[in-house]
Write a structure and sequence with these properties.
By secondary structure, the chain is an alpha/beta fold. It has a single domain, classed as 3-Layer(aba) Sandwich (Rossmann fold). 36% of the residues lie in helices and 15% in strands. The chain is built from 5 helices and 5 strands. It has a 5-stranded parallel β-sheet, sandwiched between helices. It is globular. Bound molecules: ligand FNR. The site of ligand FNR has 13 residues, from helix 1. Ligand FNR binds at residues 12, 14, 17-19, 77-81, 114-116.
Amino acid sequence: MDTFRIAVMIGSLRQDSLNRKLALALAGMAPPEFKFHHCRIDDLPPYNQDDDGRPPEPVRRLKTEIADAQGVLFVTPEYNRSIPGVLKNAIDHASRPYGQSAWAGKPAGVIGVSVGSIGTAMAQQHLRNILAYLDMPTLGQPEAFIANREGLFDDKGHVGLDDSRRFLQTWMDRYTAWVRDHAKM
Ligand code: FNR
């Protein structure tokens, strides 16, 4: 049985992050051959092109994690109608030096939860723009804009609402099939 490693990029550093909960819940909905690794981004320095020739250890670690993955899953909140700066910083780091991007060709999924009613739609659109430039094939449908509601996550971290659980399972089935298809290419 082939194993598929998924590098998970969570756009929030917050201890009680809804997006981290969503990432954990999604991993529990995937087939067993899918292994999810949450990439650490809180110890990356602010990106500075002067350091391209000698990237610090956390940057090398992140690039190795991306390189070793068969797919990337972005789970991010929306900050001021875009993606959080910490996520953009991580994306920039792993895209450099020029010609040595870790992202190129990796199939990506984009999803997020926010307290706002549009459920990270603007952030996802900005992220899709970036991923297109980075040459990452990105799952188009179904789109998943999750607005937080009472009971979305239960105390065990599972999705507590039936309609949300069904929708997220469908999304995850499509995402894992998408990664499998790309692994065959
Ligand atoms: C937000 N939040 C937010 N929500 C939204 O729907 N659209 C937005 O543009 C913003 N902007 C924004 C900016 C900043 C700086 C913060 C801190 C928050 C609210 C956001 O959805 C909420 O804090 C989520 O809980 C963040 O996700 P995590 O940390 O729970 O994963």
